[in-house]
């Protein structure tokens, strides 16, 4: 404190009247005043080899010789300006220190970038069931992070509303960075992309757009697999919650590539975008229309947009994944029972009770003709049936299938061994129902395999 002005800090206790001899940080503007003093004292050394946050002074150097010289400079400046450091709170010659809650070392650990107000900012937001997060970035480097858990009330909100809350909290926290220049918002929730154009129907939308007024920004869709930083922060569990639960469990969800292709096909399709905006705020907005995981569906079937190239890519990807699934339906087992599928149509001969039917099956069928209603499917007029009758079975119930030709060969890894597999075309099955089987297993089961292998 300045000599002669200690009385300005006087306060009364049950022991009497007291005055501060050093500046208390609890006074109004005291932290800002002290930080201003530090900036003036170290103005020539700041960010060259010293960082100062209030009374935390960090001196960093590339070599020990340079560090000794820098330390001498800092201590000399403190002495000149009549500033003192408590010895038991100091650490010298350290290779690793804790500074502002972060462990800093010389091992090239990640450091937040300093903001450059001549360049645009990028704001990435994400939300999960229990938390939200945001990352402020420039030139693909993080400037600041935000992570916050959701209350029980907010955990019951829709994904769209959680993502919007994450955006609003991030803008409110970093408004001093984002205003007044243009910035970009990236989210993995496709519907949020149309926030600025959709009709306001909820109180949260009205509140959100009010907070965003006066800001220049655009919202871009970013695939979930690319939004790794924000996604990881939003799913980080609270430490106390982990202690209470004594176990941290997670559920991983696979997202097929064709879903990403369908989302890209919506670009530039005004009809689809209009429907998505309406369904985002009102699930009953469209007749027979629904919105799940950002995919527009009509009567439960995915709607592909009019973006031609993306439309072709989406269809190709669906067919490719379906082909891969079909080729692996038959796995190596001790018998060759086929995967379950529907056959027919067959005439209903008799209804047995409320939930069972007797069907008129072919004489070659080796199965009981009475079926539970859950095992049947109504024939739709014009529907194409891939197989008219079930495959002929042996008395033991095994399908009588035979090899026609070997189509392809590959080598895969099973455990620590390399296993040869072949793509087999089966008798009485469609060409697209060819399956990958282990070479040694097929050779042991079929006597004519050698002749077929020669043909391949």
Automatic annotation (TrEMBL):
One Pfam family per UniProt: RT_RNaseH
Domain Reverse transcriptase: 1-104
Stretches assigned to coiled coil: none
Gene3D superfamilies tied to this protein: 3.10.20.370, 3.30.70.270, HIV Type 1 Reverse Transcriptase, subunit A, domain 1 (3.10.10.10)
GO molecular function: endonuclease activity; hydrolase activity; RNA-directed DNA polymerase activity
PROSITE patterns: RT_POL (PS50878)
InterPro entries: Chromo-like_dom_sf (IPR016197), Chromo_domain (IPR023780), DNA/RNA_pol_sf (IPR043502), Retrovirus_Pol_polyprotein (IPR050951), Rev_trsase/Diguanyl_cyclase (IPR043128), RT_dom (IPR000477), RT_RNaseH (IPR041373), SH3_Tf2-1 (IPR056924)
Keywords: Endonuclease, Hydrolase, Nuclease, Nucleotidyltransferase, RNA-directed DNA polymerase, Transferase
PANTHER family associated with the record: PROTEIN CBG26694, PROTEIN NYNRIN-LIKE
Protein name: Reverse transcriptase domain-containing protein
Source lineage: Eukaryota, Viridiplantae, Streptophyta, Embryophyta, Tracheophyta
